[in-house]
Design goal:
Layout lengths: L1 E7 L8 H12 L5 E6 L26 H9 L3 E7 L7 H8 L8 E9 L4 H12 L3 E11 L4 E2 L3 E2 L4 H31 L1
Parallel strand pairs: 1-2, 1-3, 3-4, 4-5
Antiparallel strand pairs: 6-7
Length: about 190
């Protein structure tokens, strides 16, 4: 059974991101084909990215906070990113969290749940491009929610009921792709041994 991390995409104190992530997890936990875990990037206290050697070349991280982050991402088979859109892009906290690692992301699948004034679509497209570099395959289904209609006063999450069906389709894709890509990672590790 694959392990999927539901990754928060914001570290602000006033964020609504965790409300959305908990909603994703509540629906995901009804499944029996994978296990799901909430992974809050804020809890890892990653500083601004400042490694002397890029992660594509080494897993010998000099930033102490990067080591537990590396272990967590390495332990997961796939991801659902809960994405807040800031200025039509992803948050700097999420970008740093992605940049700290490379090999840990390789050959895994991800789905994107976004929100913003325009459903977080620009940020979702931004994230797809960013994730392509560390070889994360993003599924086609995307849940996009509006700050104006899926939140009360832009602060209390209250999603329209139809989002649940789209999320379930996204989870179907993430679980199947994660399962398939796990075989690639297993084959590569056997070759190395």
């Amino acid at each position: 059974m694959v392990k999927i991390g539901i990754i928060t995409g914001s570290t602000r104190d006033s964020r609504v991101n965790t409300q959305v992530a908990e909603w994703v997890k509540s629906i995901a936990d009804q499944r029996e084909d994978a296990t799901f875990e909430l992974v809050d990037i804020k809890e890892y206290h990653l500083p601004r990215y400042n490694e002397s050697v890029p992660a594509i070349f080494t897993k010998d991280y000099q930033t102490p906070e990067a080591k537990p982050w590396s272990e967590k991402i390495d332990s997961l088979d796939g991801f659902v990113f809960v994405l807040a859109e800031y200025n039509k892009g992803i948050t700097s906290g999420l970008k740093d969290a992605i940049d700290y690692l490379y090999q840990e992301w390789n050959n895994k699948a991800a789905g994107i749940v976004s929100y913003g004034s325009t459903l977080g679509v620009s940020a979702a497209n931004d994230l797809r491009l960013i994730l392509s570099v560390p070889k994360v395959a993003t599924v086609g289904t995307h849940v996009g929610m509006s700050l104006f209609t899926d939140f009360e006063n832009m602060s209390t999450f209250n999603p329209a009921p139809f989002h649940k069906d789209t999320l379930e389709k996204l989870l179907d894709e993430v679980v199947s792709w994660s399962t398939a890509l796990k075989t690639i990672r297993t084959e590569k590790s056997e070759v190395i041994l």
